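--- STAGE predict ---
source: upstream dedup step, 1 unique chain passed
mode: sequence only
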Amino acid sequence: MTVDRSKIAKKSRRKGHGFERKACKLMEELTGFKFARVPASGGWQKERITGDVACIDNEDFEWSTECKNEEGFDLGQLLRPVNDRGKTKIIHWWKQCTDDAKKRNKKPMLLFTKNHYPIYCMCFEHDILSSKWVAPDHWFFYNYKLIFIFEDFIEINKK
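--- STAGE serialize ---
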């Protein structure tokens, strides 16, 4: 049986784009601002916009949001390196997120999930503490970063 890689890639892109649209709605609920997917998976206007979703009615919005919807992670990966470069998927995503955020002097926010799981959020602890937002009651701390369920975060901080 031959696997049609183009169909798999299309399905994967649709899944990612769907998650980015959901992330836009959640960010709107959290902030009261309007958000949109960044065309070409964050590749569009890299000199002006970072991340996968962008605030479109407040240029001074201080966060760069990267979105990942992939099956190949578990939170236990944070405790052990799994590839030859010593990085797990989550750490690789975080590096991409922080590199993009630095380009525009933004705070990095990584939203990630997989099928039948909640949406997790990873941010630097000091970025949350220095913002107007409050961390949810249930979170864990990893290497100066907070990881929590994003819907819990929205519930206590929404506009």
